[in-house]
Design brief:
five-stranded mixed sheet; alpha/beta
Length: about 325
């Protein structure tokens, strides 16, 4: 038993050192074993051994080193971003329009292909067939990361706006069908992660995003201590249930805008009093226009200025959605 534990520990250390080296090479155009040793804090001997192994598996490759007047230049290594690819796919339902969006990204998160498709029905088979088509076009895909406008409860999708998908064990079905690493999470959680990584990667203060979507109702995602808050049953962020009215109320708020702001304020106030975020991002068609300013005004009528977070509106959250889907595969 002791030997088995030691072996496991040694393997864990090596896996961690390998990750450190790969992460270091992702941040620079190329590097020698000395350069990687300086960045990671690992010994030159350890870096040399792991870099040779990574070179054999094609996860890194050798590149021409800098000129050296003393003779042959030292070996330089470059991270192979195209060692494998990731299929990032998410579904949306807003303003009575259902769409499947996908992007194929490399291991640096760079988008290689992207498209959005309107569809009458979004169910498990639709998602599976879409991914099958992408893998047929790109055999380098080795991971799948998906986002849904709902949450997973006991492994099954709960999405009011997508009844054909509700109850479907999406993550397990994808793993069983494609036999590869699969990630699946709530859309607002993933967007929150992507926004956080892109805008505030070093911030330790809480951060939240609230979506006010036409015909779908509000949703939210929260980052605390740089991690997604999911709660006991993945229900965290389902603010639609805070007496925020049904989806029909949120289809067109122009005729009852003041009431919509009141409901939006109660949701915003809940975040402020519970997690005290530094920043709250609003998104969704219903949050366009003056919603952010009107919520700031409401906050000032009830709270001291030092407790009021920065409130901003971001219309196009697609890039952050993809960033979040990619980020899930790095965790």
């Amino acid at each position: 038993m002791i030997v088995k534990s030691n072996v496991s520990s040694v393997n864990q250390v090596k896996d961690n050192n390998t990750k450190l080296i790969l992460d270091a090479l992702k941040t620079i155009p190329f590097g020698t074993k000395n350069t990687v040793s300086q960045i990671t804090g690992l010994s030159i001997a350890t870096c040399n051994t792991i870099l040779n192994e990574l070179s054999e598996t094609k996860k890194v490759f050798e590149v021409a080193g800098a000129y050296s007047p003393a003779g042959r230049p030292p070996k330089s290594y470059k991270f192979n971003a195209d060692y494998s690819h990731i299929c990032c796919l998410y579904v949306t339902h807003e303003d009575h329009q259902q769409m499947i969006h996908y992007s194929i990204v490399n291991l640096l998160g760079e988008i290689l292909e992207s498209n959005s498709v309107n569809t009458d029905v979004i169910d498990g088979s639709t998602i599976i067939s879409t991914i099958e088509e992408r893998i047929a076009c790109d055999p380098l895909i080795s991971k799948i990361s998906t986002g849904i406008p709902g949450y997973l409860c006991d492994g099954k999708v709960s999405a009011v706006c997508l009844p054909e998908l509700s109850g479907f064990p999406l993550k397990e079905a994808l793993k069983e069908h494609f036999h590869m690493e699969v990630h699946c999470d709530n859309d607002m959680n993933i967007i929150a992660l992507g926004l956080f990584k892109e805008m505030f990667p070093q911030m330790d203060d809480p951060f939240a995003i609230i979506g006010f979507f036409k015909g779908q109702g509000p949703g939210a995602g929260t980052i605390v201590h740089q991690k997604i808050v999911k709660g006991m049953s993945n229900f965290a962020g389902e603010v639609l249930h805070l007496k925020a009215s049904d989806p029909d109320f949120w289809y067109d708020i122009s005729s009852h805008y003041e009431e919509a702001v009141e409901k939006a304020f109660l949701i915003t106030l809940g975040f402020i009093t519970i997690i005290n975020p530094r920043t709250i991002v609003l998104t969704g068609k219903n949050a366009a226009g003056n919603m952010a300013e009107d919520l700031k005004k409401a906050c000032r009528e009830h709270l001291a200025e030092e407790h009021i977070p920065e409130l901003m509106y971001i219309e196009d959250i697609a890039p952050y959605y993809i960033r979040g889907l990619f980020g899930k595969t790095e965790m």
